[in-house]
């Protein structure tokens, strides 16, 4: 291997390590890194570096995932590391999130999706209060809006947030909910 090729390989390895560090170190409340931050840290070819990193972390069951931003540009996109396979219930329990909080989130995502992706907050609260106490519903909805799993606009309409699109396999969630509904005894 020529010296130039070795230097190029060493540079790529340094950039891949830096990309990993940038993705792992959390800034602020939200995981991941905005596209403009990746570009600033790694250069214009950051996408190719992220592809190499994704291949490197694949044996660990991870992948680099992109959540498109509202403008659909590289700068507004968010990049993060996520598990390729969803965690099991026991793994979710050890994450520090209560199982009833996860149930509120799952029910909310399913309800919002069943309403074509946008529904009023009052309607969501009414739906959730059939199964959860009022204080749990309000607390959980506020918390998930703050964390980016749900988004609420100025008209109090709830829709799925960027973090749900990144971390939740909505198709599998809906399939699991529908299969449980079919198994449930008829009243």
Shape: elongated
Helix content: 55-70%
- The strands making up the biggest β-sheet line up spatially as 1-3-2
Structural class: alpha+beta
Radius of gyration (CA) equals 20 Å
Order of helices and strands: HEHHEEHHEHHEEHH
What is the fold-level CATH name, i.e. the topology of the largest domain?
Answer: Arc Repressor Mutant, subunit A
Mean pLDDT equals 83
CATH architecture of the largest domain, by name, is Orthogonal Bundle
Features:
Arc Repressor Mutant, subunit A, 187 residues, 56% helix, 2 domains, 3-stranded antiparallel beta sheet, 12% strand, alpha+beta, 9 helices
What does this structure look like?
This protein is an alpha+beta fold. The chain folds into 2 domains: 3-83; 89-183, Winged helix-like DNA-binding domain superfamily/Winged helix DNA-binding domain (Arc Repressor Mutant, subunit A). Helices cover 56% and strands 12% of the residues. The protein has 9 helices and 6 strands. The chain has helices spanning 3-24, 35-42, 46-57, 89-93, 99-114, 121-128, 134-147, 162-167, 170-183; strands at residues 33-34, 62-67, 78-83, 119-120, 150-152, 157-160. The protein has a 3-stranded antiparallel beta sheet with strand order 1-3-2. Strands 4-6-5 form a 3-stranded antiparallel beta sheet. It is elongated, with a radius of gyration of 20 Å. The relative contact order is 0.10. The mean pLDDT is 83.
């Amino acid at each position: 291997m020529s010296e130039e090729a070795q230097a190029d390989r060493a540079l790529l390895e340094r950039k891949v390590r830096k990309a990993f560090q940038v993705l792992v170190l959390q800034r602020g409340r939200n995981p991941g890194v905005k596209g403009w931050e990746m570009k600033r840290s790694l250069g214009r070819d950051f996408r190719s570096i992220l592809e190499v990193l994704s291949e490197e972390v694949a044996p660990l069951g991870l992948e680099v995932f992109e959540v498109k931003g509202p403008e659909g540009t590289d700068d507004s996109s968010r990049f993060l590391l996520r598990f390729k396979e969803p965690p099991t219930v026991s793994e979710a329990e050890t994450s520090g999130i209560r199982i009833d909080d996860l149930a509120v989130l799952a029910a909310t995502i399913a309800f919002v999706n069943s309403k074509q992706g946008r529904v009023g907050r009052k309607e969501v609260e009414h739906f959730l209060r059939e199964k959860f106490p009022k204080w749990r519903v309000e607390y959980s909805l506020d918390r998930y809006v703050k964390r980016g799993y749900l988004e609420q606009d100025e008209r109090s309409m709830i829709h799925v947030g960027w973090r749900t699109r990144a971390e939740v396999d909505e198709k599998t969630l809906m399939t699991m909910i529908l299969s449980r509904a079919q198994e449930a005894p008829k009243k």
